[in-house]
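Reply to dn_fold:

You asked what the input looked like. This is it:
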Amino acid sequence: MTSNAARAVTRISHADPQDYCAIFDEDMNTLYSLAFLLTADHAKAEQCFLVAFDDCRSGPEVFPGWARSWRRRAIVKQAIRLVNPRPEAAANRVNAEAFEVPGRLIQMRAFDRFVFAMSVLEGYSIRECASLLSCDARDVGQSRERALRMLAMPGEDFIAQRTHAARSNQPVSAVSAG
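and this is what came back:
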């Protein structure tokens, strides 16, 4: 095989920067929403989105079929770098006033929010989450349970727990459901 033919095969078998431009453009709203869910901050979400985009365009070569999942993973990894969610970080929630499910997600501790988004929405295993978050799988499992329990609470119970947690200086997710 000539060197030109080998280069042609390489170009065909890997996603190139134009491929990433197209897939980021196609799903811009979804990708930004994922970045915002993870960071709970519009400025950080924008930064996360842009850095993930640059990382994908200049990063390791992947097959075109993997490019779509690779860009989501790049968003997750960049959000982890920006927020650095830790299991013991108790009070890094956004004080949102809406109590619908998206508001509840934003109000969660950063670690719980990351675990929920990664394990439930993105489909990462507990071990993958633990590896990406550099923590124990037990912490991830407990956080996932807390997040699911918090989202399942009726509105009045959620508000009451949030108020109780604020008075006792505990995170909402640490207050037991009863």
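The CA atoms of residues 32 and 140 lie 24 Å apart.
Hope that clears it up.
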